[in-house]
Design goal:
Order of helices and strands of chain B: EEEEEEEEEEE
Structural class of chain A: mainly beta
Radius of gyration of chain A: 13 Å
Structural class of chain B: mainly beta
Helix content of chain A: under 10%
Number of strands of chain A: 12
Number of strands of chain B: 11
Number of helices of chain A: 0
Largest sheet of chain B: 7 strands, mixed
Largest interface: A-B, 23 and 23 residues
Strand content of chain B: over 45%
Oligomer: heterodimer
Helix content of chain B: under 10%
Distance between the termini of chain B: 31 Å
Number of helices of chain B: 0
């Protein structure tokens, strides 16, 4: 079975500071992909960043980066220089024969 | 906008009503999905269509009936729903079926309330 666990239901960060959201997963697949999605209040879910499991290098997209620890099955998201627009639900997801999502982390950005 | 639209955005219905949710994607994708999003629960995959054929039905009650007339449109027909069916229903599409690197693109969702 494939599972995705996000153990932090809520997080907060001061504007301009850095925050890390945690995600662990379990899969029996040798080749898979991991994603972080962002869902702002009342807005569409959009892709933040994607990581191929076969790549050792951590993915980076501007202020967003991941810490991918394959052996530990950990895939955390780091947001640097947090902005008010980063406030949203963040979902970690894993692909196998379908997408598996975590329960989400609600991020509040404090001005 | 990500190229996936859903209508209506909000829907309130009684338990005896029949209604339909509509999803349209303008991305040229071949796979489409219906998800149910409830508070504090992972997204629940309901149905998967690939090239207009249903390839996944995750033990969804028969009061939910999907329809995919072509690769751009996906419907979810609702009848005799229960209050516990109240949730945000999300449509998504991807170039190919999930299992590879293809990102899923989501619509804004329909907020459904069953009275």
């Amino acid at each position: 079975a494939q599972t995705v666990t996000q153990s932090q239901p809520e997080m907060s960060v001061q504007e301009a500071e850095t925050v890390t959201l945690s995600c662990t997963y379990d899969t029996s697949e040798s080749d898979y992909y991991l994603f972080w999605y962002k869902q702002p209040p009342s807005r569409q879910m959009i892709l933040v960043i994607r990581q191929e499991a076969y790549k050792q290098q951590n993915a980076t997209e501007n202020r967003f980066s991941v810490n991918f620890q394959k052996a530990a099955k950990s895939f955390s998201l780091k947001i640097s220089d947090s902005q008010l627009g980063d406030a949203a639900m963040y979902f970690c997801a894993l692909t196998g024969n379908q997408f598996y999502f975590g329960t989400g982390t609600s991020l509040t950005v404090i001005p | 906008e990500t190229g996936v639209t859903q209508t209506p955005r909000h829907l309130v219905m009684g338990m005896t009503n029949k209604k339909s949710l509509k999803c349209e994607q303008h991305l040229g994708h071949n796979a489409m999905y219906w998800y149910k999003q409830s508070a504090k629960k992972p997204l629940e995959l309901m149905f998967v269509y690939s090239l207009e054929e249903r390839v996944e039905n995750n033990s969804v009650p028969s009061r939910f009936s999907p329809e995919c007339p072509n690769s751009s449109h996906l419907f979810l027909h609702l009848h005799t729903l229960q209050p516990e069916d109240s949730a945000l229903y999300l449509c998504a599409s991807s170039l190919r079926l999930a299992g590879g690197p293809d990102t899923q693109y989501f619509g804004p969702g329909t907020r459904l309330t069953v009275l």
